[in-house]
Specification:
seven-stranded parallel sheet; 8 helices; alpha/beta; 260 residues; Rossmann fold
């Protein structure tokens, strides 16, 4: 029987690349996405490729994975899919939130802030709690979330997302601290600037970000989703069982190379 992985945000960007890589590694794929319009078309292409690679051993659900109602509805379905077998991985790769400044013409409001922190931060905790209670996490299971340099560098329009990601890092650290005794580990992966759809939503100057990144990155290129997917593949190996409560950098040294 195949081991299964759960990807929250598995249709584009890092989540899609991870689904494709882990499908090649032989894992069954369970993924959530929340796509409309053009993004739905891109999602369809990802799903078709993953389905072909896994021989149909994949399940994609187009619904809001950050909603508590979704968790309660679909976790029993996940248990049915895996036959009650614990997941090897839960990856939080949801990139949806408000990108604006705290001050100025359109300052972030409480509703936007609460939504962003919940979707991109707190929701990883509720998923982990519910999966753990359903006995879908056990020794060897990994909890992973994606973070960024924006957590400690102030950036135009990134404030709400930065707060959410800092919250996520703290949650992941605490999950690993509490569940490590059961062999369940939790870590954050910090990617460098990556030219994905999510980046284009953060700033209108995303092309300048990309060019600047190529200059300051020691490896003279941006991070690619496949780089992150490869890192996640490595972290699922038994040799990574003792990596816990950590931030793992997958950015070619970008975060150590001066100001943004």
């Amino acid at each position: 029987m195949s081991e299964w992985v759960l990807i929250l945000g598995g249709s584009t960007g890092h989540g899609a690349a991870t689904a494709k890589r882990l499908a090649k590694d032989g894992y069954g794929i369970i993924a959530f996405h929340f796509d409309r319009g053009e993004a739905k078309k891109i999602a369809g292409e990802t799903i078709a490729e993953v389905k072909e690679t896994t021989g149909g051993n994949c399940h994609y659900f187009n619904t809001n994975a950050a909603a508590l109602e979704t968790m309660d509805k679909y976790i029993p379905k996940i248990a049915e899919i895996t036959g009650g077998q614990p997941l090897k991985l839960m990856l939080h790769s949801i990139a949806f939130g408000t990108t604006t400044n705290f001050f100025g013409e359109k300052p972030v409001n409480q509703k936007q802030m609460d939504m962003t922190v919940h979707v991109m931060g707190n929701s990883i905790l509720y998923w982990t709690q519910k999966l753990y209670d359903a006995k879908l996490l056990a020794k060897g299971s990994r909890i992973l979330g994606l973070t960024s340099e924006g957590n400690y560098v102030a950036m135009e329009g990134y404030g709400p997302v930065s707060v959410a990601k800092v919250a996520m890092e703290a949650i992941i650290r605490q999950i690993g601290w509490e569940l490590g005794q059961f062999g369940i580990t939790a870590n954050s992966i910090q990617a460098g600037v990556t030219p994905t759809r999510a980046l284009t939503k953060i700033t209108d100057n995303w092309e300048a970000w990309v060019e600047n990144t190529k200059k300051r990155n020691p490896m003279r290129r941006t991070t690619q989703p496949e780089d992150v997917a490869n890192t996640i593949s490595l972290l699922l190996r038994p040799e990574a069982d003792f990596i816990n409560c950590s931030i793992i950098y997958c950015d070619g040294g970008e975060s150590r190379s001066g100001s943004f």
